[in-house]
Structures are given as structure tokens and as C-alpha cells.
Amino acid sequence: MRVLLKIEELTVAYESDSQRLLAVNNVNLEIFQGEIFGLAGESACGKTTLANSILRLIKPPGRIIGGKVIFDGVDLLSLDENELQKIRWEKIAYIPQASMNALNPVLRIYDQLADVVRAHRKDILDEEIRKRAEELFVSVGLAPEVLKMYPHELSGGMRQRVIIAMSLILNPKLLIADEPTTALDVVVQRGIIQLLKDINKKFGTTILLITHDMAVHAQIVDRLAVMYAGKIVEVGPVKDMFEKPLHPYTQMLIASIPRAGEKRRLSGIPGLPPDLRKLPPGCLFHPRCPFRILGRCDSIEPELKQVSKDRKVACHLYDR
Amino acid sequence: MSNLNLLELKNVSKTFVSGFLFKKKVVAVDNVSFSIPGEKPVIFVLAGESGSGKSTIARIILRFIKPDKGEVLYRGRNILTFNSKELLLYRREVQAVFQDPYSAFNPVYPVDHILSLTARRMEVAQGKEIEEVIDEALISVGLRPEEIRGKYPYQLSGGQRQRILLARALIPRPRLIVADEPVSMLDASLRAEILNLMLDLKAEHRVSFLYITHDLSTASYVGDYIAVLYKGSLAEVGPIDDVVSNPYHPYTQLLMSSIPIPDPSKRWQEKIAAPEISVAREPVSGCKFYDRCPLRKEECRRAPPPLKKVGNRHVACYLY
A31 in a domain, yes or no? Predict the structure, then answer.
């Protein structure tokens, strides 16, 4: 498997005069070319900050304080703004959360799409843009007539399809989508999940899908990473992780999801994620962990370690 | 229909008119009838997509707005004819919890404020008794009063805040709590705890719930009965386990098959059609689901299908 994106020891901090919190804390990840990679975790665990830091979109008081983001062999954190501009949208497209509400209400869809293309390809002809847009719209399940419409004429699901089409217009290698199905009705959500799968197959686009919704991950991703308090706690093929989650947090997270038609008593996760300004010593999950080993989990931080051919976990239960 | 019903809606309709020169009419609730049985506490789910009219029904039941047509009977008496004294009694017995636990609190007061305010306004207790009532309510939602009292909203998590809002609703000792999307803003691990709390309150405090949600997985976990809304009209009403395992109405079938199953070994195999592409729809005089229904017939266009008894449930579809 060829690695398309490699994140090495990435750390992002939010800083004020008196304190500093680590939103992304020494993260290591590899995303393979052609796969759909899922990033899961609860609110404020750092998923979106991680996505933003890939394209260096972190704004003060946030700051990337260390690490590398290697895309196709190039460290994006070492590029200057001009070089990075060529990567954004052309090589890596990013759909931030709630993008479908960010379309310009006074411009027709086509004009917004053409703006994107012209910003990157100065010499392209209008006919070419139109042809490409029409083809792409059919691929994302929209009629070419939608190009002539205004955003307010479209439903939420259709606007999300427009956004997905816009992200693909320059044929990027990697698509990062942050909560693309959240706030959509279930039937529409199913259509978008199916569309992302189709794009991955048809165009070979690698997808990094970020969502808190474990059921969506179960339906679409090939491999999954679970984040907790700024750290990756477990990575592996999604089937194996649902079948046999290794990290106690992953286990409890999966046990807390209701399944339609099942009445088995759900267990939540007692306690709360740590305050990122004063992290506990040792494993960040140990205060809530039912399996913690005293004298170890509360003092030594577990590293994300390979436990089998394609699985990694950061937990002392798997120390040898 | 017997007077044993806790709450009964009879042919309730509500149309909103907006715009100044070009009046636009939106039929939010269209001839809706259902009843929540009163023999024993139940969790009655009102399910539907965004814009289906579920929150409008909640607001009608809570008497925030009046319906244009129809009656709402609470234990056999029309709530629209209540005088102020009867209304106070009604508001004690029918309480509410809403979606957003982050904006429900006044940030300048400690969280006790919202609790003591309810105790006083609802004339539940006076003087020192108020403190006892508050402690009791906090304990029944699994919070320790000494840890909560005096705290400000920003010091508490979303799950804790939603528990406090449930405690607030319990203070007047209600028979029915209208809960409008109470868990949709909470993380999975906290969501499970609030759902379990609803089940416990039903069993131990004998409180019924009208649980309004778009999320059918959580609905089927806690619910006893379900009413499925589509564009302001009921599609299907019945015992939730039967409706989930064997939906009758084609819309309910589509909804149930669109719930993502949190299991990578149970992925969707067949594809669903992309959404209808044309935006302008001809006004439908018959069934509202006509343009999306895979089983439509000519007669479905003529008149809206009435809600008919089919076995142990009610279905609005000409197939039955």
C-alpha cells in the first residue's frame, strides 16, 4: 500500500498569555492511497483541528507547534503560502463542517464553481469548465440544470452534493470531509454516504472522513482511527475494530451506540473527557477506565504501538 | 377513544403564513390525530425528518401556539379551553425539555436558579422546602446536589446540563414530559446515559414521555409507541418494535432501511435512488409521499389516504 498522507508527531496548541492547551497531541497517522479513512471521536477531541492543520488552516490563538504533514512525499508544513495554494483544492480538497450553508446566496451555482476553477487555472476556457461541471454533476446525482440555480432553490441534500461536486472539480487526490452527513435527514444521509463511496471507486479519490457518528464509519470507511483528548488511541481496519475493539475507550464508545430494534441496556461512559488545560498524568483515559492498572496507567503515558499486522493501540493492557 | 388517554390530539392542523406582499402558506401540521395511552407510563415517540412538523406539534401541546383546527385533550379535557388556574395545573403536569442544553441556561446565574424559579412559579414549594425539592430532583436524575449547586452553566458538561433540565422538569411532579430532541446535541457516551435516565424515570417516577426525534435508533431503544410524521401528516402509528421490525407504510420502510447500522459486516447492499432532481413539484392533492413512493398507484393522487387501522397499528396508505 502506498502512503498518500503521513502525519508525524503533529502537535497543535491553543495559547493564551497564561495557559496552553494541546488540541492535537503528538499524532501519528498514515492514510493509504485509494482508501476511505475514518477519524472518530467525541466533541472537542481534536478531529477538526487535525483536519485544519493538514492544510495549515489553523488560526491564532491556535498554532502548529511541531510535527510533519507529508503529502505525496512533500512536507506541507515546510511550504510557503504560494506553494501551499497549489496543493489546496488541486491536490487536497477540504469540505469543512456545514459547508453546504456557506454557498454564496446571490450567485448561481455555476458561477461559484467557475470561480474555483479560474482561481487555480487561469487559462481555462469557459466551455471546458461548463463541460466538466456538467459531467461532474451527473456523477454526484444532480441534473445539469442545477448549475443555473441559486442555493436557496436547493434542498440540504442537494446543496451537499453541490459542495461535493465543487470539491472534486480540480480532480484532487485527497478529499477531507468533516461531518458531511451531520444535520441531514437519514434518507439524505444514506444518499451522501453512497455518493462518497461511489466517488472513491469511480475516481479513485482517497477520502478522509471525519465524523462523531460511529454508524456512518461502520457503513463506509476501510480503516478507522479513534481520537480521545487530542490523541489517537486506536487505528485499524474498521471491521476488526467493531468486531474486537482493543482500547477500552473504543470498546465503551461502540457499546454506547443504540441499534434500531435492540433493547439491550446501553452503557454510557461515566465521567468526562479531561480538561485539556490540565491533563492527567499517564494515560489520558485512565480516570474513566474500568481496566486501569494502578501505578502504571496513572503515571506512564502509553504509546500508539503496533499490536498486529494492521492494528495499533495506545494502551498498557497490550504491553508485552 | 376512552378518557383513559393521557393526551389525545384530534384532527389538529396548523398553517403558518409568511411574507408581506406575496403570502406564502406552509402547512406545518395537517390533520394529525394520535393518543398517548394513560393506563401506565409510556414513552411515545414522534418521529420525522426536519420540517415534518414535529416541533410544531410539541409547541401546540405545550400551548405555546394554538392550532387552527382540532382539539388537544389532556385526560379528556380540551387544553385550549383552560382558564389560568387550570393552565397552571396543566403546566405542572406537562413539562418540557428541549434540544439545546447549552443555551437553556442564563449564564449569569448559578444553575440552581432555573430550578428554584420553577419551584416557585409552579407553586410547588415555598421557603426552605424549595431547597429540599431541588435536592430531591437532582438526586433523581443521578446528580449529587453538593457537586452541582452553586455551579455556573459553563462549569458543567452538556450531559450534566441536560440532566439538570430534566431535574427541572421533574420538580412539579409531571405526568408527561415533552422532550424535543433532548439528546441530539450530546455525544454518544452521554446520550446513552440520558436515554437510560428516561427509562428509569418512566419506571421509578412513573413519568410518561413524548419523545420527539429524527433519530430512529435512539427512538427504538427507549420507545413503546411511535408515530411517524411526513410533511405534517401521520404515515404510521403503532407499537414501536413492530413498526421498526416490519414497517407498513412505504415512507416508514424507506426511513427504517436508511438507518445506518453500526456494524461494518452489515453494510447496505442495494443502492437507493438519488433525490428527485427537479425542484419545482406540482402540488399534490393526494398522498404527500406520492412523488417518492416506489409503490404508487393512480388512486394515490386523488385524495390524501386516511389513517386506517391495520392490525395493531394505524397506517395512512392505500396499499392497506
Answer: yes
- According to DSSP, residue A247 is labeled S
**Domain locations in chain B as residue ranges:** 229-240+247-259+280-320
- E strand or H helix at B193: helix B188-205
pLDDT digits (tens, 9 = 90+) for A75-123: 999 999 999 999 999 999 999 999 999 999 999 999 999 999 999 988 8
Asked whether the beta carbons of residue B261 and residue A149 sit closer than 8 angstroms, the reply is no
The beta-carbon neighbor of A218 closest among B196, B216, B260 is: B260
Residue-range definition of the domain harbouring residue A14: 3-91+172-229
d(CA B177, CA B189): 23
B221–A263 CB contact, under 8 Å:
yes
Can you name the residues that pair with A306 across neighbouring β-strands?
A312
For B271, the closest chain A residue by CA position comes to A194
* Closest chain B CA to residue A45: B187
pLDDT of residue A182: 87
Q: Do the Cβ atoms of A185 and B265 come within 8 Å?
A: no
Distances in Å between the Cα of A278 and the Cα atoms of A22, A297, B16, B72, B153 are 10, 17, 50, 52, 20
Nearest CB to B260 within list A155, A219, A243: A219
- Residue B274 has a pLDDT of 59
Residues of A whose CB is below 8 A from B196? 265-266, 268
Residue A307 burial class via C-beta count within 10 angstroms: exposed 0-12, middle 13-18, buried 19 and up = middle
If you average pLDDT over residues A175-200, what whole number do you get?
A: 92
A148 touches chain B (CB under 8 A): no
